[in-house]
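Notes to self after the call with IL:
- keep both proteins in one doc
- input above output, always
- annotate only the second one for now

Protein 1:
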Amino acid sequence: MEINNTVNPKSALEALFPQSIDCGEGVVVKPFSLATYALLEKIGSYIIFPHEPTQEETLASLYICTHDAKETFKKFDLLQDLSIEWAETLRPEMFRKITDAVLKQIDVVKNAMPPEKEGDEKKAVTDGSQV
């Protein structure tokens, strides 16, 4: 059995027991769940598929990361309107805090995964994601 000495045990524990990040003003970025990931994937979010996002996509992505995934799925057809209404309640500097918290939550997940070996190939595609 080969031991991977590059994995940080603290990162692995953070991934197993991630913490919500309080951004202030009642905004909390929760740990990423499969439902959160699925919603971000469904909108083609820059968080999952790196690209230059539109303002509407940025707001929708941040809304998804700060709201209950189950409720967001129920209201998915209203996501653009909901995210704009939500954004109008926030001070401009909050968007940087929320974005930073989202990036921290992504890092928790990424840091817990072992690095891919060179030559590893994806085995299947499910709903646009390669696994």
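Protein 2 (the one to annotate):
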Amino acid sequence: MSLLNFLYLAAGLAVLAVALFLCIALHRLARALAALEETLMTTDEAIQEVTPELRGSLGSANDIAAAVNVGLRAAGEGANRLTDVVARSLGPTQSTLYGVRVGARSLLRSFTGLDGAAPPEPPKQMDR
């Protein structure tokens, strides 16, 4: 056997060994991909089952949010109206409060006999 024949035999065995290792690696990869495919199919089925329920829940949440928005809009309009009414009635209210304050002071002075100054001294009696 010549050296060249030995090299051909060694190269052929090396190619066969590489092909065998590649077949083993590809077989393992195929098993992993099959398991991944099964997991993805199960996940897809679960998502298909949950999707209608999720759509219903999202629709309910959307309806609730719309109702809250309507309520907040109504409350905001009511608050604006109240602010306008308070602003319009603030002038007469302040005048009324000022009148009540002045009337109370006047009533207090009439009962106590004070003019807002020092209390009056009783008249002195002259000795006779």
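Annotation: The mean pLDDT is 84. The chain has one domain: 12-112.
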